[in-house]
């Protein structure tokens, strides 16, 4: 039995499992306890011999994490050299997510030398975040978060995460600072259009491309429909294809951003025209193709990012959706194939934020954490799924971003 006398303690457990040759799996579990926990007893993991072996191994391999000391995650040291993308998966609207996020971001930066934070946010949002990290304009940061009203992203902890990342970056030499890369679709249309207006040169556009550019950027000041946005984006797409050299000369170093953003807006409208599993299936396909398109433009470097949990799975889930993490980990053309780990958070006795009114509502992944671990162990025992990490969190809901949070 392990007794905790502090408000927050963490245990990292490294699970190993014996498989057929060339299919060895390292299995990492990060168990996070939030609140005054009287004690934690070990319960038998039912099921497979692999699960019982994992339980025995964890009895000898635990390590406390100190949220004020990222270096305390040293048990993850063994997975650093052979991996280029460290992907964590959370359930939205749980407060402790961002504490774990920032701790692991610092750890992988300091120990693995990551250059990029690749979160579940759009391209335009992340480009604005890079501007905020450089300039510290909190009015701009607040404007970005105003666009999240009514969504799971509209919470104080997420807002504070970027503040903490800016402070962390400012403590580093410029060459060591973390850059944020967005590969998701443009959920917030106004953020995307605002970014497009930001990157346009101050000088007037050549006559051959002026109408197409203005047609899209002028929507920013209107209450446009998805159909109007699609029509303007398609018109600009056709104009870029017809006058590519003119756009390249006019946009200079921002040509890629314009070219990418127009396509991503068209993709966004396509995704939101769908429902159910088809929404997720098409969205994750676009997220992967966006990653493939952006990756060659970046100086080589390791990556870290926190996503919604489904997106990080490295095998096809029961819903038969090929999630982004699965393709990243296994696709022949993936630049991180076989060099990615997934860290999934498991929740017990938690609350999450109701996105409509900001209230806390009960949330619990599993009534039995041991059964949860069994299922993750079984899921990890597949070819190419070399590493799976699980965080078990006992925690509280996010706080909705208040109008005065930035004061």
List keywords for this structure.
11 strands; 407 residues; 42% helix; alpha/beta; disordered C terminus; disordered N terminus; two-stranded antiparallel sheet
Structure notes:
This protein has 407 residues and is α/β, with parallel strands linked by helices. The protein has 2 domains: 271 residues, no CATH class; 89 residues, no CATH class. It is 42% helix and 15% strand. It contains 13 helices and 11 strands. It has a 9-stranded mixed beta sheet with strand order 3-1-2-11-8-4-7-5-6, sandwiched between helices. A hairpin with a 6-residue loop joins strand 9 and strand 10. Helix 2 runs parallel beside helix 5, helix 3 packs across helix 6 and helix 11 crosses helix 12. The protein starts with 7 loop residues before the first strand and ends in a 13-residue tail after the last strand. The N terminus and C terminus are likely disordered.
